[in-house]
Amino acid sequence: MIKQILGRLPRKPSKSADNRELGGASASSLNASISSRKCDLASDGPINANSIPVLDLDGASRFANRGGSKLPPVVNSKLNGSSVSASYEALPAFRDVPGSEKQILFIKKLNLCCTVFDFTDPAKHLKEKDIKRQTLLELVDHVSSASGKFNETIIQEAIKMVSVNLFRSLSPQPRENKVLESFDMEDDEPLMDPAWPHLQIVYEFFLRFVASPETDAKLAKRYIDQSFILKLLDLFDSEDPREREYLKTILHRIYGKFMVHRPFIRKGINNIFFRFIFETEKHNGIAEMLEVLGSIINGFALPLKEEHKLFLIRALIPLHKPKCLSMFHQQLSYCITQFVEKDCKLTDTVIRGLLKYWPITSSSKEVMFLSELEEILEATQPAEFQRCMVPLFRQIARCLSSSHFQVAERALFLWNNEHIENLIKQNRRVILPIIFPALEKNGRNHWNQAVHSLSLNIRKIFSDADPELFEECSLKFQEDEAKLEEIKTKQETTWKRLEEIAASKAVSGK
């Protein structure tokens, strides 16, 4: 009898169990986890079976996307200022229930967190918001310390909770009517979501849930399906940079764990790029999606599939067209360079694509193009360089002749790269006649001293490397200058005669 009575009493949790259940549930530890994940993609490297050791990539690849129980329609449980039900009370902590009941409690806590509060009024539902926040923190900790596979019911309820909280209409941006050229992410304050105190923990929960070895990709893919992925991609247009940072990391993990969804994710990103390039030229998450793609491209197997080459030609290269290129150029340049490093035969395609979209009236974009061009040329082999060097150096000659000193200076800096200088020297008989007039004019009378000095240095490089060729180009330049001067003189004489005829007719008409 005594044993039966003692058996019914709740056991006192051990100190280690207490730490395991709630040790990661504090806001400070959550923030530390978030900040440590800031460079998650950079540290993960390419996405392949070896790059994300915690994920079961091989297991996911063996299953096709088949039918089955789908996520039920989500009930909109948002509280629009109405009084909260009295039943919205905190549930017991995981440490306070026996192990056999933790699964049921987990589901109850997930359902409790499906209530979405209105954060536009910070004074509303303070108690309930705090209950939900603490419950979410407990869920994060429980997923992190879980031992044993999550069953299908738990996966279904977890995805339902994530969907209810995250999938929402993004707040309208206050810059709708501003000119695109004036939009600058560094100067304009981003719009911060007032619901972030809850959204942040939901994102953290979902990230840990996806990355957890206890989440079976075979079961989870029924609920993290194509519809779910599309809604997740739509959230990348959020103006809150904190949200986009989480989305970037989560999409990276989903791509790594669910191999069956990889082509669909690439296609979804591709479609977003198309809309951005050819329709709206307005999207907040292009840089983050390109960052994910940089890791994906790094993991592409060789030889490259035709699908990947088409993506380069039809989406990545045209991304140089929008006026707001500066917002994502660094990430785009990395993706482009990855393709060239993987397959040097793509160099000609990439360079001619850049020349097609080369800016005419934007000197700041020209400087970006020249910087990217240097990275591409550094990965270029001599045979590929020869295929595109004529149109390329015609454009570089125009940059050398630019009245904007930063454009001319950046073009001259190409000679500071040893690999590029060697490529130019090997093909100097083709290149020097193209760029000689620009170098000569800069060396004579360019208004900027830095451009003037750099041009003289490069003239000397060519003169020392091949004095005979340099002399030929110099004579040809002088002949061309003499012809131009002759044409100019003839034009001036013609105009003078026309003016005299017009003046004589005016006098005779009186």
CATH architecture of the domain at 24-169 and 190-299: Alpha Horseshoe
The CATH homologous superfamily of the domain at 24-169 and 190-299 is named Leucine-rich Repeat Variant
What does the largest sheet look like? none
Report the mean per-residue pLDDT as an integer: 82
The gyration radius over C-alpha positions equals 32 Å
Structural class: mainly alpha
User: Helix count?
Assistant: 24
Q: How much helix, percentage-wise, in residues?
A: 55-70%
Instruction: State the order of secondary-structure elements, H for helix, E for strand.
Output: HHHHHHHHHHHHHHHHHHHHHHHH
Q: Quick one: how many beta strands?
A: 0
Highlighted features:
510 residues; mainly alpha; Leucine-rich Repeat Variant; 0% strand; elongated; ARM-like; Serine/threonine protein phosphatase 2A regulatory subunit; cytoplasm
Task: Briefly summarize what is shown.
This is Serine/threonine protein phosphatase 2A regulatory subunit. Residues 1-24 are annotated as: Disordered. It is built from 24 helices and no strands.
Layout of helices and strands, plus pairs?
Layout: H1 2-8, H2 15-22, H3 27-36, H4 40-44, H5 57-61, H6 102-112, H7 126-144, H8 152-166, H9 196-211, H10 217-220, H11 226-234, H12 241-257, H13 262-280, H14 286-298, H15 306-316, H16 329-342, H17 347-356, H18 363-378, H19 382-400, H20 405-412, H21 418-426, H22 428-445, H23 449-465, H24 467-509
